[in-house]
Amino acid sequence: MSQLALVIDLNKCVGCHACATNCKAWNTAGEFGPLTDKEPYGKQPEGVWFNRVQTYEVGKYPKTEVINFPKSCMHCKNAPCVEVCPTGASYKREEDGIVLVNYADCIGCKYCSWACPYGCREFDEHDGVMKKCVLCVNRIYNENLPEEERKPACVLACPTRARIFGDIDDPESEASRAIREKHGYKLLPEAGADPSTHYLPQRKVKVELDEDELYVKPLAIVTIEKKITSYKEQIFDDFMSP
Amino acid sequence: MRPERSLVLLLVLAGAGQGIFVFLAVMDIFVPHLIDGVRPAVIYSLGASSLAFTFAGMAASLFHLGNPQRGWKAVLRWQSSWLSREAVSMGLFSAAAALYPLLYFIKAPGGIRAMVGIAGICAAIALYISSAMLYARIRFIREWSNKLTIPNFIIFGLTSGGAVSYAILCLMGINYAALREIMIVLGAGSLILKTFAFIFNKNVYVPTNIKNALVMNDPNIRLMSTGTSYEHYNTKEYSSGLSDAQIRSIQITSLFLAFIIPLILWMAVPARPDAAKIFAILAALSMIAGLLIERRLFFIEGNHLQNLYYSRFRGNAARNPLLSKAKKGTPVPVK
Ligand code: SF4
Ligand code: SF4
Ligand code: SF4
Asked: What's the predicted TM-score (pTM) here?
């Protein structure tokens, strides 16, 4: 048994939305697309996305921080969306634990989306079927792609490498190690879905300097400032000279 | 949750259709002397209206589906899905409800008709239960997932079916005192149940908040962006957008229209048949209209867990500060 999943490092995510846009680009053009949009260039665009990055502000001004929070299907081990589907269109693959929707069987009753505690399914009004993250099942086994590109599109796009993809049931995988070593956690465990996606917590980053380091620092700043000033003056001189 | 018109119509109309059939079959099978002399009129009129209500509900439900042309596939997963069980029992029930008057028409032996009638009653009850479980299965929506949901579907369905049956019989000039008394009992039962449901929903305590949802221990967490587009499925499907005051006024309207007014009308039904007719029809109309509002309210009150991520979760403290304070130390697991 294996369970493929994403591990998302909230400490690294900078909220650039690259994962979301690359996900949309790959999947809207692939066999799970199109991810229909309504008024994509209008004032109030709407549409289907498999992955969205939400932003929260935490704390009280002036001590606030921003949390960027990417959320896509968690490929739950005990997926309630699969259990409730009346047609069998939603299913969980035995071999790798990926939860998929067979569009040809889906009648668009939306019951699965109600049963998902995380709001990770999006109904496509145009096609009348339920859509959601497919864990890029059409990339990770795709022999037409070079070996190093057989990963989810969102993972490849992430500039800070905040997204790790792997088998969380294999204790030696990169994903399992990250969960173990960096205190990975699941969302809303009390809902009973046992999500496979894990999040790594955001941590406070502090630079601790010893006294002697403090002593050196001002000098360095002064030198840099001087350099900048002289550089500026030089530009100014260049500009002014005929 | 967003109240969807097609589902509201399905629940109210099919629920009443089942109720009408139950009344018909019980009268015909268990207390046959009650309709001696008017049997054909009762069987045809109630049988036809039961079918009409059920099919109207089923037709409305098709508008909910994204791909109604393959709606039949909903029967495939009856082992695991309550929606599938609802579809199966809906099929069985409508078959029995259609067969019943037909058997009388072709003068089939009474035993066979009774068997079909009892099967129909069982299918109707199974249908009530599976419709209710469909909602009760979603454990984290506490307004749906509680012990009142199944009795709610059964008793409201039977009462509305009874109200319509009684109105139809009165219209045909058959004013049964016994039926009126049953309606008063059912109406009072519905009223009591609904009152309990209001109290439960008002005090429901979901031991979670955005801190749990994000696993971030800070009392101040504000949503700044819901991700890429302006609105999307998850910002629209799971909340009604109504304020607490609006919800309260809907609650009161539904309570009066669906339960209090019909109950008063039934209690006041005069002996003169032509006046009784008007009372019974008004009671049935008020009940159906009220139930349409009540079922809409059932959706509106459902507070989905995913709303936490979109700051649309109707918080506990906002609804009942005393209760949430008292229970703060002892969270009950959702599952
Ligand atoms: S996150 Fe939601 S849609 Fe995905 S497997 Fe879990 S319950 Fe199903
Ligand atoms: S919307 Fe489709 S996938 Fe979801 S429960 Fe209904 S049939 Fe199954
Ligand atoms: S795994 Fe694939 S489908 Fe899922 S969010 Fe990432 S890019 Fe999108």
From this structure: 0.88
